[in-house]
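Renewal narrative, Specific Aim 1. Our central claim is that a sequence can be written position by position from structural information alone. The example that follows is taken directly from our test logs and has not been curated for this report. It begins with the C-alpha cells describing the chain, in the order in which they were read.
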C-alpha cells in the first residue's frame, strides 16, 4: 500500500468541482504537491476506499486553509521556508552593498589623506581589490562550494572585517596591501553563494522576481553608501572604513542569529554542486548566457569608463564641481535601481535573443551621444540612460546564467568575474588613453569594444538554443 501522501496527490482531483466552485483549486494542487514531500505512514489495507478519500479531503482542506491564511497575511502562497530564506538574503545583500560602498570610497580618502599615497598607488589598491575578487571566484570556488551559503556568508563577512582591521593597524604599506587583497578575495564567498541560495528551486517568473528583489536591494545599498561615506569622511578620513568594518561584522552576526532563530534557515542544507548536477536535478541551462556575458563584459567595460574616468574629465575639462558630478552619478545609480525593479515586473524580455542585441546597440548609441555631450543638460539624460542600460545588462547576465542551471553559485561566480573584469579593464585602459590621447579617444575605444562584442554575440546566436 503506498504512503498516504501519494494517495492524496492522486485523489484530490476527485473533489475538483468542490474546490473549483470555491475558486481555491490552485491552492489545493499546491497543497497536494507539498504533501508529497512530507513523510507519512501508509494506511492500513483494511481501510475502505471511501474512508481514505474522506481522510484525503480533510487533510487537503486543512492544508488549503493554512495557505489561504498565509495569503491573507501577505505571504502570497509562498512556502514558509522560501519566505524565511528571502527575508534573510534580501536584507543581507543590502547591508553587504552598503559596507562595500563605504569601503570603496572610504579607502580612497584613507589612503590619500592618512597614508599619503600618490594617486597611482591609490588606483592600484582599488584595482587589486577587484582583481583579487575575480581570481578568488575562479580559484576558490571548490572551497566555497563545500560550505553551506549561510556559513560561507557569515565567515566571509567576519573575515573581511578582520582583514580590514589588520590593514588599518599595519604600519607597513606592503602588509596593508596584502590584507586588503585578502579582503577582496573573501567577497567571492558572499555574492555567488548568496545568489545560488536565493534562486535555488526557482525558474521563470519566480526566478525573475527573486533576482529583481535581490538586484533592487543591493543597488539601493550602492546609492546610499557613497553619500554616507562622504558625510563620515568629512569628520575623519578613516571613519568610512571603520563604518564598513562595523557593517560587515553586523552581517556576520545576523547570519549566525538567523541560522539559529529561523527553523527553515537552520534546516537548510543547500550547497552548490560544482562539476555535477544536484541529485535528481537535470541541468537545463540556456545558451543565451554566453552572448549575455559577452554583452556584460563590453557594457561594463564602458561602465568602468563612465564611473571612474568620466568624473576626472568632467572635473578637469568641463570644470564641473564635485557636488554636481556626484549628483550626476547619483542619478545614474537611482535609474539603475528603478530598472532593476521594473525588469523584475516583466517577463517579455526572457529568452528572446533580440533584446540582448538591442541592448548592445542602445549602449553604442549612448556612447556616440557622449561624444557630443558638452553640457550638463545633455549629460543628465545620458547618465540616466547609462544607469538603465547597465542594470539591464546585469539582469540579462545573471538571469540567463542561473536559469535552468544545477550549479547556480558557480554561474554567479562567472557572471561576477565577467563584469568585474570589464570594469577593471575599462578603468585601466580608459585612464591610460585619457591621459595620453584625450576623452574622445576613450569613447571611440568603447565603441570599438562594443562593436566587437556585437559581432561575437551574433556569431554565438547562430547556434540553436536548447530552450
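The sequence written for that structure reads:
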Amino acid at each position: 500500500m503506498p504512503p498516504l501522501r501519494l494517495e492524496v496527490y492522486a485523489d484530490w482531483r476527485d473533489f475538483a468541482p468542490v474546490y473549483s466552485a470555491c475558486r481555491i483549486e490552485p491552492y489545493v494542487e499546491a497543497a497536494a504537491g507539498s504533501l508529497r514531500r512530507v513523510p507519512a505512514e501508509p494506511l492500513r489495507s483494511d481501510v475502505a476506499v471511501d474512508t481514505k478519500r474522506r481522510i484525503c479531503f480533510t487533510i487537503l482542506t486543512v492544508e488549503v486553509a493554512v495557505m489561504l491564511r498565509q495569503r491573507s497575511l501577505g505571504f502570497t502562497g509562498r512556502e514558509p521556508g522560501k519566505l524565511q530564506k528571502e527575508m534573510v538574503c534580501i536584507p543581507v545583500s543590502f547591508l553587504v552593498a552598503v559596507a562595500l560602498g563605504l569601503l570603496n570610497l572610504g579607502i580612497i580618502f584613507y589612503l590619500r589623506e592618512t597614508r599619503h599615497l600618490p594617486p597611482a598607488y591609490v588606483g592600484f589598491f582599488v584595482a587589486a581589490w577587484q582583481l583579487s575578487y575575480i581570481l578568488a571566484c575562479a580559484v576558490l570556488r571548490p572551497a566555497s562550494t563545500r560550505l553551506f551559503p549561510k556559513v560561507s556568508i557569515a565567515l566571509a563577512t567576519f573575515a573581511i572585517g578582520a582583514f580590514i582591521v589588520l590593514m588599518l593597524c599595519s604600519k607597513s604599506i606592503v602588509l596593508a596591501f596584502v590584507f586588503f587583497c585578502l579582503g577582496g578575495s573573501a567577497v567571492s564567498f558572499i555574492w555567488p553563494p548568496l545568489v545560488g541560495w536565493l534562486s535555488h528551486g526557482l525558474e521563470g517568473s519566480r526566478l525573475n522576481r527573486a533576482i529583481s528583489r535581490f538586484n533592487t536591494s543591493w543597488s539601493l545599498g550602492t546609492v546610499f553608501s557613497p553619500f554616507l561615506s562622504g558625510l563620515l569622511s568629512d569628520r575623519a578620513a578613516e571613519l568610512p572604513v571603520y563604518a564598513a568594518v562595523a557593517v560587515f561584522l553586523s552581517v556576520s552576526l545576523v547570519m549566525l542569529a538567523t541560522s539559529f532563530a529561523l527553523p527553515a534557515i537552520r534546516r537548510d542544507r543547500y550547497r552548490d554542486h560544482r562539476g555535477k548536477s544536484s541529485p535528481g536535478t537535470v541541468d537545463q541551462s540556456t545558451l543565451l548566457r554566453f552572448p549575455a556575458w559577452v554583452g556584460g563584459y563590453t557594457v561594463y567595460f564602458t561602465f568602468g569608463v563612465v564611473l571612474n574616468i568620466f568624473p576626472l574629465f568632467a572635473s578637469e575639462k568641463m570644470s564641473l564641481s564635485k557636488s554636481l558630478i556626484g549628483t550626476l552619478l547619483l542619478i545614474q545609480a537611482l535609474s539603475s535601481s528603478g530598472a532593476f525593479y521594473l525588469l523584475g515586473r516583466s517577463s517579455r524580455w526572457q529568452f528572446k535573443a533580440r533584446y540582448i542585441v538591442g541592448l548592445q546597440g542602445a549602449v553604442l548609441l549612448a556612447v556616440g551621444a557622449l561624444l557630443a555631450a558638452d553640457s550638463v543638460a545633455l549629460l543628465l539624460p545620458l547618465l540616466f540612460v547609462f544607469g538603465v542600460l547597465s542594470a539591464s545588462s546585469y539582469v540579462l547576465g545573471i538571469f540567463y546564467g542561473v536559469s535552468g542551471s544545477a550549479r547556480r553559485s558557480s554561474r554567479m561566480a562567472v557572471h561576477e568575474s565577467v563584469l568585474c573584469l570589464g570594469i577593471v579593464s575599462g578603468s585601466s585602459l580608459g585612464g591610460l588613453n585619457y591621459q595620453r590621447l584625450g576623452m574622445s579617444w576613450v569613447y571611440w575605444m568603447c565603441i570599438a569594444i562594443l562593436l566587437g562584442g556585437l559581432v561575437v554575440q551574433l556569431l554565438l546566436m547562430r547556434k540553436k538554443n536548447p530552450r
